[in-house]
Amino acid sequence: MATAPTRIDEDVFAAAKVAAIANSRSATQQVNHWARIGKALEASGTIRARDITNVLAGKGSYDDLNSHEQAVVRADWNEQMDAAREHLDLAAEFVAEGAGWVEASSKGTPVKRKSVTARRKAS
Q: What gap in Å lies between CA 26 and CA 15, rounded to an integer?
């Protein structure tokens, strides 16, 4: 069997390593196994790939999907949210706008951050 190089997200590969141990596979074999399952699901009659695609594109109703299809949509939404959070830097945005904010410390207590303009006025 020929192989082709590909990039896999670190979190997916880490999960594959864990699952591979339980299933007596290598991490690569586990990823290939998951890919085959995904291919079969898309081709199956129980998962309507077109309906899922429509929901993800905002052209269909999540509520019209069966529970398996909803699970596929939620997994995709989770991936999209993770990607969005990866590039999110609200502190930098607040500083750029001169706005203050409140965040939690490592102990969970609130920490007030003053706006840049408020600091200038205090000087």
A: 12
Planar angle of CA 35, 46, 42, nearest 5 degrees: 30
Question: How many percent of the chain have pLDDT more than 90?
Answer: 23
The dihedral through the CA atoms of 55, 58, 60, 64 has a sign that is positive
Q: CB 123: neighbour CB atoms within 10 A?
A: 4
Q: Can you give the residue ranges of every domain in the chain?
A: 10-86, 90-122
| Nearest to 68, CA basis, from 89, 87, 47, 82 | 47
- Could you tell me the pTM of the whole model? 0.49
Categorize the per-residue pLDDT at 104 as very low, low, confident or very high, splitting at 50, 70 and 90: very high
d(CA 102, CA 67): 39
Per residue in 46-59, pLDDT (tens digit) is 778 888 889 989 99
Query: Measured on CA atoms in the order 56, 57, 61, 65, is the torsion positive or negative?
Result: negative
